[in-house]
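Methods — Computational structure assignment.
A single polypeptide chain was analysed. Its primary sequence is given first, followed by the predicted tertiary structure written as structure tokens.
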Amino acid sequence: MADEVPITPAGMATLKARYHLLFSDERPKLVEVISWAAGNGDRSENGDYIYGRKKLREIDRELSHLARRMKAVRVIDPAQQEDRGRAWFGATVTIADEDDNERVLTLVGEDEADASIGRISWRSPLARALRGAAIGDLRTVQLPAGAKEYEVMAIAYPR
């Protein structure tokens, strides 16, 4: 799993929904505004035209990025994980540090990571340290502030 870019089914659905929204809704509306603005005469001083073209380039860049990402990722459904006793992609892991401060983290793909809600990238240092861990295992993670040890308290997968 080193070279592939994993993503959960929900993460892939989010990428597809964003692509569909941009391609089927936002882009056509913007093209309509640009066409209207272009018909108004001098384009060099036409704010609607200039802004519209800039915004269209941004949307096209994002569409291109999303298309590349959707081709590069491999959908992995954590509910299908057979080894549920260890932390693998898609697992929700409860860890505790030396001071018994607990954190609940879900190991997800890069495109769906959001540390503020406990979703960390499968490739982050903490996730790499937790890979393959079982309940009760101690794992040391190199953080910017130094090494920190965590104990795996619980592991769960979606049903």
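Note: Helices lie at 9-38, 47-72, 125-130.
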